Amino acid sequence: MHNNFRSLVATGRARNGEYPNENAPPASRMDLMEYDCHAEQLALSHAGSCDRREIPPFARPGYSENIHILDTTATDLLGAIQNAIASFIFELRGNGIPSNMILTPQVFQRTRRTVTRVAK
């Protein structure tokens, strides 16, 4: 599921919410994912802390982090994965990405769907 969604985004086949007649632009700089035992240990340790915050970059050198908080325990692992992917898909379908990919000052000043943080 996760790889299928990443593939849609990477190849420009994911629907673009705010721009209904176009797909989101292809991901020209999407990081290649590979399995890494140390990354898994960091992720499991952080998930076990339940602090609901990102680990500071200096504490995870060389790794990026994507956090999704599931506010229920009434699910299994597959349900949790589906919930996380659905929330990421909703972001793209709900907000969209301009095809020219320019983040303008006006985006920060809008009153609907406000930008609170920007990351790579």
From TrEMBL:
Pfam families: CAP. InterPro entries: CAP_dom (IPR014044), CAP_sf (IPR035940). Residues 1-115 form the SCP domain. Signal peptide: none annotated. This is SCP domain-containing protein. It comes from Parelaphostrongylus tenuis.
